[in-house]
Automatic annotation (TrEMBL):
InterPro entries to which the protein is assigned, alphabetical: ArsR-like_HTH (IPR011991), ASHA1/2-like_C (IPR013538), HTH_ArsR_DNA-bd_dom (IPR001845), START-like_dom_sf (IPR023393), WH-like_DNA-bd_sf (IPR036388), WH_DNA-bd_sf (IPR036390)
Gene3D superfamilies: 3.30.530.20, Winged helix-like DNA-binding domain superfamily/Winged helix DNA-binding domain (1.10.10.10)
Pfam families: AHSA1, HTH_20
PANTHER family, sorted: TRANSCRIPTIONAL REGULATORY PROTEIN
Segments forming domain HTH arsR-type: 7-82
Keywords: DNA-binding
Name this protein carries in UniProt: Helix-turn-helix domain-containing protein
Species of provenance: Metabacillus halosaccharovorans
Family stated for the protein in its record: Belongs to the AHA1 family.
Length: 260
């Protein structure tokens, strides 16, 4: 853990690397696009900066055809926040999340803007636990840590997640009420599971997310990929980025490591 934090601080220690993260916060970019953003810096230097950012786990790279896209991975920053700031903010965390949602969606009586577009989220989290423990927490034990709910606020709800082809991730409340968060269309336990589901989004949306688990340094690297296309509201991409960081980088990580 301390070595990981040292790599994060090292990665943040150069202004060009911080500027690269600012660019990736806007959208994923190829190495060539990043190089064009720094005309006074050689391509070799940009690649070296990207390597240091990867060592700090602040970016993840995924090949798309002949190009390699670089994505911001803000989870290590969330972990730093949790270590030095989180305990002071925890009592109000949910209230602030709820307040932000209300302000963004209903503030000033403005109508939410919807456009036909897509987003793609890539994140990686290191969890100090075995791969089978992480897989079980992601599926069979999801109710123990998954905090986001679609049930009306005055009702309690229960979650189930069956990690088999055709199995569903379901939230139920009341006698005959509930919601399907996703349906499993591929599973290779405890290495990978792919799910199709709206994850709280409404309307004409096609959404799918994948968990991949990789053994590393006595623990597990959890790779998340989430893609959504259709009629998307402007704030949904950022909301889901922050939501995944909180769910996986804070709640799931803490749950598994405390159990382990």
């Amino acid at each position: 853990m301390e070595e990981m934090l040292s790599n994060v601080f090292k990665a943040l220690g150069h202004p060009i690397r911080r500027n690269i993260l600012d660019l990736l916060k806007q959208s994923p970019k190829t190495t060539g696009e990043l190089n064009e953003s720094f005309p006074d810096v050689t391509r070799y230097a940009i690649m070296k900066h990207l390597t240091i950012l990867e060592e700090g786990n602040l970016i993840v790279s995924r090949r798309k055809g002949k190009f390699k896209l670089n994505y911001l991975n803000a989870v290590p920053l969330q972990e730093m926040h949790n270590r030095w700031v989180g305990k002071y903010m925890q009592p109000t965390a949910n209230s602030l999340l709820n307040l932000r949602s209300v302000v963004e969606k209903k503030g000033d009586g403005q109508k939410m803007t919807e456009t036909n577009k897509s987003f793609h989220i890539e994140q990686e989290i290191f969890i100090d636990g075995r791969r089978d423990q992480v897989f079980k927490a992601l599926t069979e034990k999801v109710e123990d840590w998954w905090e986001f709910r679609l049930a009306p606020k005055h009702l309690s709800s229960q979650f189930t997640f069956k990690p088999v082809p055709g199995g569903q991730f379901i939230e139920k409340w009341g006698e005959n009420a509930g919601a399907i968060w996703g349906t499993v269309y591929y599973v290779n336990a405890p290495e990978e599971i792919r799910v199709q589901g709206h994850l709280g989004m409404q309307g004409a949306v096609n959404s799918a997310y994948t968990y991949k688990l990789i053994d590393k340094d006595g623990g597990t690297v959890l790779q998340l990929s989430h893609t959504a296309t259709g009629v998307l509201q402007e704030n949904w991409e950022q909301d889901h980025k922050h939501g995944w960081e909180y769910l996986l980088g804070t709640l799931l990580k803490k749950y598994v490591e405390n159990k382990a």
